[in-house]
Specification:
The complex is a heterodimer. Chain A is built from no helices and eleven strands. Chain A is mainly beta. The radius of gyration of chain B is 13 Å and the shape is globular. Classes of the chains: A mainly beta, B mainly beta.
Amino acid sequence: DAMVIQNPRYQVTQFGKPVTLSCSQTLNHNVMYWYQQKSSQAPKLLFHYYDKDFNNEADTPDNFQSRRPNTSFCFLDIRSPGLGDAAMYLCATRQTGFTYNEQFFGPGTRLTVL
Amino acid sequence: EDQVTQSPEALRLQEGESSSLNCSYTVSGLRGLFWYRQDPGKGPEFLFTLYSAGEEKEKERLKATLTKKESFLHITAPKPEDSATYLCAVQANSGYALNFGKGTSLLVTP
């Protein structure tokens, strides 16, 4: 089945220790998104890639960066995690050029910062 | 600025007790309104996309409707397995992002 895969599902890191979250997709979609979702809150867009073009949301902290080495993979790097960065991180994909526009989400990575 | 407001924040229903969830929105040119279901600790699962006022879509016990200012997710004769958080999101013509509401947490008891 075509899908969006996130690894790891659970990540524990220490305050200030860099961490990388991974997303891969078998849908061959050209747009990939990273969202941050804190408890009982709406998912908040951090950035997205339209093909190779990176688009950062204005209020995304500099501490968050992303890489997309190819169509299938996208990474979220948190350079110096703080306690406030503990959240669920969601990856999503979408294919442009069709009448439908829905985004398909992965299962998420739950990040804990100690 | 695009805004999405969902109500109620939480809803408790008895099995079989039908109800509706509301999503009010303001957006500068609606490209699409989306409903997702999210189970605890999981990513959102796509349910419906609505594009224009008057449009309706159904899936099992769920029916989504759209007006120019709001969308409703009607749940008919819910079962305990329908318990989840239901998220509404809008996409404007001008952008690629989804702007989500905070969701309605639904609990259906036997």
